[in-house]
């Protein structure tokens, strides 16, 4: 049988692939999306749901570098490493350390800030387009600093956010209590990002997005892309029960993109920061917005009929099973704030697609512009999906792109 054909094949149906497919189909292009699982069921399902337009600070900073050994190896640290994965992770870690040096971290923050500029408007537009305004909560996000000293030690981060024009309101502990009365009393203070938006149910948003994309004409193929190869001005995408020729291919397979990118001729230092969530079902929300106790590196997020506690970082690759210790750490952290919480109703592990400089890879392949890379969004994939879709559309349409193109 001759191969199937399409104008644009998107590999991966997470939030990046779905938002890109939606955008390109709405622009009148013929789009086929290749995804082996339920669309939107990877990292894009289980995240904290924040459209974090304020998160300009890369993961690697001088402060993180200084504290890296204790962060990585201290028991119950919010950042951990599976020792068995250490040799395989070494090249990524060395690059991460390099990117954490002051000048590099500054440069990365500037690039992230540029990308974030249209993230809120991008989500408002996308949610309207797909009939999902009801899944956007516009009530800001709150960072908590548990002591005055912790607040003081965040001054560099706060200064950087000010530099990039991020709206921040500084709250005393009493002011925090006034807006989130169910939080326990504490000593420090908070930073409210008043304009931030969050998704009240990322899984439901992914379902709406997939449905709207299908209605806009996107064809979904349930298959895993195993090989991509250029030839005769086209790209051949193959796998078990998959034989597709495309004029252009977009690699948007999240943390699984590395091998496909290498086949296209791009050797990207992509790895994964594994993250977890635990959920507690409840009818009456304990909070009215996402709250991040910063020292614990997770968000407590009120979602539809449940509280989701999502975050932390575990370096350990794509294959190891979930770590019961990491799940327990989240549970204990949640109960330290809300002691009446019982056992979680469900737990989840997901794979952030992470590059050492925290700047996603959104560009043409070095081997030719008929393959486009759109992955590596780390902690900000949900936030940056509409912006990424716009950038990919500009690359395909050969329109000038005001946003920086990164390595
Ligand atoms: C705990 C946690 C909390 C987070 N919180 C936030 C947050 O609050 N805000 C935010 O902006 N971001 C957050 N993130 C990050 C965000 O979830 C990710 O950056 C984002 O989901 C990445 O989207 P993606 O489409 O690239 O990847 P994914 O959602 O993982 O999708 C990739 C898809 O590609 C498919 N695939 C893989 N290999 C192939 C193949 N060979 N062929 C075809 N398809 C393939 C997979 O099945 C998958 O569906 C969080 C992440 C975690 C883990």
From TrEMBL:
Top-rank taxon, per record: Bacteria
Entry GO MF terms: oxidoreductase activity
Keywords, in A-Z order: Oxidoreductase
SUPFAM superfamilies noted in UniProt: FAD-linked reductases, C-terminal domain (SSF54373), FAD/NAD(P)-binding domain (SSF51905)
Ranges of residues in domain FAD dependent oxidoreductase: 8-393
InterPro entries referenced in this protein's UniProt entry, alphabetically: FAD-dep_OxRdtase, FAD/NAD-bd_sf
Pfam families the record matches: DAO
Keyword match Membrane: no
GO cellular component: cytoplasm
PANTHER family for the chain: GLYCINE OXIDASE (PTHR13847:SF289), SARCOSINE DEHYDROGENASE-RELATED (PTHR13847)
Entry protein name: D-amino-acid dehydrogenase
Organism: Mesorhizobium tianshanense
